[in-house]
Automatic annotation (TrEMBL):
<dbReference type="GO" id="GO:0045892">
    <property type="term" value="P:negative regulation of DNA-templated transcription"/>
</dbReference>
<dbReference type="InterPro" id="IPR014757">
    <property type="entry name" value="Tscrpt_reg_IclR_C"/>
</dbReference>
<dbReference type="InterPro" id="IPR050707">
    <property type="entry name" value="HTH_MetabolicPath_Reg"/>
</dbReference>
<dbReference type="Pfam" id="PF01614">
    <property type="entry name" value="IclR_C"/>
</dbReference>
<feature type="domain" description="HTH iclR-type">
    <location>
        <begin position="27"/>
        <end position="88"/>
    </location>
</feature>
<keyword id="KW-0805">Transcription regulation</keyword>
<dbReference type="Pfam" id="PF09339">
    <property type="entry name" value="HTH_IclR"/>
</dbReference>
<keyword id="KW-0804">Transcription</keyword>
<dbReference type="GO" id="GO:0003677">
    <property type="term" value="F:DNA binding"/>
</dbReference>
<feature type="region of interest" description="Disordered">
    <location>
        <begin position="1"/>
        <end position="22"/>
    </location>
</feature>
<dbReference type="InterPro" id="IPR029016">
    <property type="entry name" value="GAF-like_dom_sf"/>
</dbReference>
<dbReference type="InterPro" id="IPR036388">
    <property type="entry name" value="WH-like_DNA-bd_sf"/>
</dbReference>
<dbReference type="InterPro" id="IPR054844">
    <property type="entry name" value="TransRegBhcR"/>
</dbReference>
<keyword id="KW-0238">DNA-binding</keyword>
<dbReference type="InterPro" id="IPR036390">
    <property type="entry name" value="WH_DNA-bd_sf"/>
</dbReference>
<dbReference type="InterPro" id="IPR005471">
    <property type="entry name" value="Tscrpt_reg_IclR_N"/>
</dbReference>
<dbReference type="GO" id="GO:0003700">
    <property type="term" value="F:DNA-binding transcription factor activity"/>
</dbReference>
Amino acid sequence: METQKSPLRRARGRPRGWDDKTAQNTIKSLDRAMEVFEYLSLAQGKPLTALAEETGQSPATVYRILVTLEGRGLVEFDPEDQVWHIGPQAFAIGARFLRRTSLVERARPIMRRLMEATGETANLGIEKEGSVLFISQVETYATIRAFFPPGTLSPMHASGIGKALLAHMDAARLGRLLSSARMERFSERTITDPEALQRDLTEIRRRGYSVDDEEKNPGMRCIAAPVFDMTREAVAGISVSGPTSRVTEAGIAELSGAVIEAAAELTLAIGGSPPD
């Protein structure tokens, strides 16, 4: 006798028409709310009128969105300055995302040893939509320090981790990123010429590490090396950063050895392999 299949046999969490991403399957009000939320995460401390103008939505709509998000702790209002900020619940949700992967967990002891060995702040970052997303940091005990809290985004062309990742991208993807990126100048040392950046990336591949030599923040240097996964793809970068008074040009060679060693250790810890 033929038995009926239970509806639970269907792929859980995937209704029919899963691949249909047309307008009928999106919630426009939610999409507008997420647009405001994402914009506020990049532009902290915005008044209502500026948020409405810069997202192209009416003040009344943006206000309703903000009040709803505030009720969930995702945004908060500063009554003194009359501006809106990302709320603590946004960090809590982001932290849950980071716990999905063992990368951050396995990197922590390695980063701590790197910080103690070099005396400088250790950072971990990944590529996120053409930028570097910092996902973990172990701060130095020194009073003057670099500070890239988890969630910070930085342009790849002016970042030690960013250049370490760019140097190991396949040519097609690298070409797409460089052609679409706006290579903003942050200091006199920022590389804004694509050909000059390509030459720098070639040298980074050869020696195994990159240097942000006051290219993003004058007076600060960063030395980074890539972390590879099991497919030998550069999926993250690990770095040390600090003031030029401590991270001197003469000291780059010694510090780079510690950074390369830490990146290789993390590569092995996540089951990865460096490219041939």
